[in-house]
Amino acid sequence: MAETVLKVAGISKRFGGLQALSDVGLTIERGQVYGLIGPNGAGKTTFFNVITGLYTPDSGTFELGGKPYQPSAVHLVAKAGIARTFQNIRLFAEMTALENVMVGRHLRTSSGLLGAIFRTPGFKAEERAIMERARELLDYVGIGKYADFKARTLSYGDQRRLEIARALATDPQLIALDEPAAGMNATEKVLLRELIERIRADNRTVLLIEHDVKLVMGLCDRVTVLEYGKLLAQGTPHEVQHNEKVIEAYLGTGAH
Length: 256
Prior knowledge:
membrane, 256 residues, 10 helices, 4-stranded antiparallel β-sheet
């Protein structure tokens, strides 16, 4: 039986007079790549931000790995086991690629402030382990050779990969990618797709919000489509692509 990683239900969110989300939910199983799409203004970014703790919902229930969690702050959601990237890259520009990933890894460490101040043997051993894991993750996403380069000197596509490595460093139950293909050229998109497929092959779980419908339909196991803050359709890419409501609202008749 499939293991449910994320289950959210009955999510509503209002901003002043705008009802941004109305009774929206989804269920993501382990090892899935799950797509979230919709026209501009559909509420997908709001939904994504609620799941990852950037916005607090007005109502709804949240379970991660079978346990309730409250998306009241990004760092608490990260601690619970959801790591996210952002549409606008948020790296530490003056840090090296390696240091950026090490920052992500520190979320799962235990030696604390006193260990760092007094540089205890436990702290030093943990730092070595963090550095080794960070190097492994840079290799994993395909940018190991840039470990000692400052983040700002990396190409756009490689900065996206670095963000994903940093997210993976937190050992998340779910990695949530916000428009990872935005601004990428065709070659970079192919490499991104291969990386996400690799992440799935390792039984990790991905939530993907993305404007590139072709990428979503070719990559995702299941897709949720929102329109005007409401659920328009859910299902496999094939089911969604052939859903009359979706075709009318979003995909256009050329989607077949």
